[in-house]
Amino acid sequence: MLDVLIFIYQNYWDSHQVLDLKETDEAIMAYELSQAGFNHEDILHAVDWVKDLHRSVQQPQYLTDPSALRIFCAQERAKINDESLNFLDLLYRSEILTAYERDLIIDRAMMLPQTALSMEDVRWITMMVLWDDRRKQDYLFVEDALSNPQGLSLQ
After folding, report:
1. Apex CA 119: angle with CA 51 and CA 98, to 5°?
2. Which of 89, 96, 87 has the alpha carbon at shortest distance from 122?
3. Whole-model pTM above 0.85?
4. CA distance readout (Å), 8 to 26, 30, 90, 131, 136
5. Alpha carbon 102 to its chain's center
6. Is residue 137 a contact partner of residue 130, using CB atoms and an 8 Å limit?
7. Fewer CB near the terminus (10 Å): N or C of the chain?
8. What is the DSSP string of the chain?
9. CA–CA dist 52, 125 (Å, integer)
């Protein structure tokens, strides 16, 4: 299903069409995804995933105590590797992500059917969460991290 999400991201996200899905838009997009060769069930799950993300992004973000510590549960650690969790922690400590956005990325990752996610998978999810004109600089930072095979280095 992540392949479908990446395809949606690359082909629809730029115009923000996918964020305002109406029933007819969903049907057109589902048809186009089907024509691109994606499985019908994966398409339905991907559209729901995107709509859930959009609803979550629009929610008011909670405030956290700066001294709070995020503990990852066993299921999160089993699905999201240490490198990816460290990546998210780096983005949070660098104030590129808020605690809410970090938790939203983890939530969206946990909603994917894969039993394990790669660093690249988590970077894609991060870009999808950050895709917003107000976050263009942060989005570009993560996009650069995605295209950099050697990972991030803050200098």
Report:
1. 55
2. 87
3. no
4. 11, 10, 27, 13, 19
5. 10
6. no
7. C
8. -HHHHHHHHHHHGGGTGGGG--HHHHHHHHHHHHHTT--HHHHHHHHHHHHHHHHHHHSPPPP--TT------HHHHHHB-HHHHHHHHHHHHTTSS-HHHHHHHHHHHHTSS-SSB-HHHHHHHHHHHH-SGGGHHHHHHHHHHHH-TT-----
9. 13
The residues, any chain, with a CB within 8 Å of residue 92's CB and separated by 6 or more, are 70, 98, 99, 102
CA distance 46 to 112: 9
Cα(149)–Cα(12) distance, integer angstroms: 25
With a CB cutoff of 8 Å and minimum separation 6, the contacts of 138 are 96, 97, 130
Give residue for tokens 């997009």.
29
CA dihedral 111, 133, 140, 4 (to 10 degrees): 30
